[in-house]
């Protein structure tokens, strides 16, 4: 039994073992996407992250080039349950804060959430981000079929199709299930150091007559 356990551990990627050792309150591994009707080119995103930098007064969600974030973006302090005051800021203003090791494009856009109190020594802030994006290039209708293209960088990525749509193809292995509302949900697991380039295609279900 001991030899079998050692062999199992040797075969499991170190990255997976490291992920399993991270406390849930501190891990930033997951992100969820909910595709809205493709005619709108919109989808919702939700993910959590932890801020530990002492003195940090605001947190940010960076908008990818080509996407537009709706003004109803919401950030919540999960420790207090309070919503943060949010507003869009240019990348140059984020860079001026010096919070992040890698500068962003000065002309890019970020959603900023203002913390109620700066992060103090030995403390952290756990934040949930909920946003709606419009991406007319990556989320389209082609001949009546839904096509969603995006690179996914998190180890765990969940994508839920709109109501009434059935999956026809996906270019990357995924675990497929139904959510509590009967929508098709895909789970992508990425144990590599690079991103997954996802292409999902779906078609409207034909109502039974």
Q: How is this fold's topology laid out?
A:
Layout: H1 2-11, H2 14-20, E1 30-35, E2 42-51, E3 58-62, E4 68-69, E5 74-77, E6 82-83, E7 85-90, H3 91-97, E8 109-114, E9 125-134, E10 139-142, E11 145-152, E12 156-160, E13 165-170, E14 175-178, E15 184-189, E16 196-204
Parallel strand pairs: 1-12
Antiparallel strand pairs: 1-2, 2-9, 3-8, 4-9, 5-6, 5-9, 7-8, 10-11, 11-16, 12-15, 13-16, 14-15
Secondary structure: helix percent: 10-25%
Largest sheet: 9 strands, mixed
**Percentage beta strand:** 35-45%
Order of helices and strands: HHEEEEEEEHEEEEEEEEE
Count of β-strands = 16
Overall geometry comes to: elongated
Describe the structure concisely.
It is built from three helices and 16 strands.
Q: What do you see in this structure?
A:
By secondary structure, this protein is mainly beta. It folds into two domains: 98 residues, Chondroitinase Ac, Chain A, domain 3; 83 residues, no CATH class. It is 11% helix and 44% strand. It has three helices and 16 strands. Strands 1, 2, 4, 5, 6, 9, 12, 14 and 15 form a nine-stranded mixed beta sheet that branches. A four-stranded antiparallel beta sheet has the order 10-11-16-13, with no helix packed on it. Strands 3-8-7 form a three-stranded antiparallel beta sheet. The N terminus is likely disordered.
């Amino acid at each position: 039994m001991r030899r079998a356990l050692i062999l199992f551990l040797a075969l499991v990627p170190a990255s997976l073992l490291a992920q399993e050792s991270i406390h849930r309150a501190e891990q930033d591994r997951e992100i969820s996407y909910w595709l809205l009707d493709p005619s709108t080119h919109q989808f919702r995103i939700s993910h959590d992250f932890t801020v530990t930098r002492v003195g940090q007064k605001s947190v940010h969600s960076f908008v990818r080039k080509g996407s537009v974030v709706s003004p109803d973006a919401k950030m919540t302090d999960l420790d207090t349950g309070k919503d943060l005051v949010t507003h869009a800021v240019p990348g140059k203003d984020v860079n001026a804060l010096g919070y992040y090791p890698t500068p962003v494009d000065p002309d890019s856009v970020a959603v900023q959430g203002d913390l109620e109190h700066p992060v103090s020594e030995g403390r952290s802030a756990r934040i949930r981000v909920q946003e709606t994006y419009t991406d007319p290039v990556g989320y389209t209708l082609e001949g009546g079929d839904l096509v969603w293209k995006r690179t996914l960088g998190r180890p765990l990525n969940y994508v839920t199709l709109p109501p009434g749509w059935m999956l026809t193809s996906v270019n990357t292995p995924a675990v497929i299930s139904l959510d509590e509302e009967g929508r098709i949900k895909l789970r992508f697991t990425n144990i590599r150091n690079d991103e997954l380039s996802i292409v999902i295609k779906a078609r409207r279900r034909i109502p039974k007559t």
